[in-house]
Write a structure and sequence with these properties.
six-stranded parallel β-sheet; Rossmann fold; 12 helices; globular; 6 strands; 2 domains; alpha/beta
Length: 265
């Protein structure tokens, strides 16, 4: 979908985007790489699917959810002689932050069309907010790199500045308050994970899922472009179904498709 005319009208008062898999890091690989490394270093390897399953949650919650998986908990108990506990979550999270810092820069490349979508929104004076499971400390690495690529949101709220991460709507509510927007029906929340869609629905916003660029498909841009058309469509259909089941109001392939969608709202 595409919108080219600056005369296009929209009733949207605020757009809020996720980061990894939505604006940067096609396929949302940075968090996965860190999670795999963390558990491998402790002799309790997890699969890519297990690392991706809680994606969208605040990173400490993400780690806790993986440790709570029966298969992982069993391997942890075999390795350490005790079931995983809160102290183990804390220790993993403490190691997560410096390791994530090391690899964030190489995974902060803008998703194609993100800068053009930001330009489209700015031209129409539509404020742009962003929310993320990353902490403020981590976003201090990402934001300057993103700005250089034309991605400069008006508001950025991280999981560590609110009481609850996704699927709670706290980050959305804070951005709305910062932007002075009171009606959630005029807010569009864009996310690449079902838990992000749940946060949008819990806030009462218009929820838009991204099928091609995020965690659920989990491919790099090069891998995605290399897919045969039939295989690509089959894979995307499965992801779209996940978002439909999560009650997304709309599902598009990429942030590049957002202007075309907003032009119809």
């Amino acid at each position: 979908m595409e919108a080219t005319s600056s005369s296009v009208q929209t009733s949207v008062a605020l757009v809020i985007c996720d980061w990894a898999g939505s604006l940067i890091d096609f396929g949302s690989h940075a968090p996965v790489e860190v999670i795999l490394t963390l558990f491998q270093e402790r002799g309790v390897p997890v699969s890519i699917a297990q690392a991706r399953e809680p994606m969208g949650a605040a990173k400490r919650d993400h780690i806790a959810k993986i440790l709570a998986m029966p298969e992982v908990a069993d391997r942890w108990q075999t390795r350490f002689g005790a079931a995983p506990c809160e102290a183990d979550v804390d220790a993993l999270y403490a190691d997560f932050l410096p390791l994530q810092k090391e690899i964030l820069a190489k995974h902060s490349v803008a998703i194609p069309g993100a800068a053009e979508t930001f330009k489209w929104l700015h031209e129409r004076n539509i404020p742009i907010g962003s929310s993320t499971g990353y902490t403020r400390e981590l976003m201090e690495i990402v934001l300057p790199i993103a700005r250089e690529q034309g991605i400069d949101p008006d508001y950025c709220v991280t999981s560590d500045v609110v009481q609850r991460g996704r699927p709670a709507p706290d980050m959305i509510h804070k951005i709305m308050a910062d932007a002075g927007v009171t009606d959630p029906k005029l807010v569009v929340k864009v996310d690449d994970t079902p838990v992000g869609i749940a946060a949008a629905k819990n806030a009462g916003c218009i929820a838009v899922g991204l099928a091609a660029t995020g965690n659920e498909l989990g491919l790099t841009l090069e891998e995605f472009n290399a897919l045969e058309p039939g295989d690509r469509e089959q894979r995307l259909a499965k992801v779209r179904k996940l978002f439909e089941d999560a009650q997304a109001d709309y599902v598009i392939d990429s942030i590049a498709d957002l202007p075309g969608l907003l032009a119809t709202i």
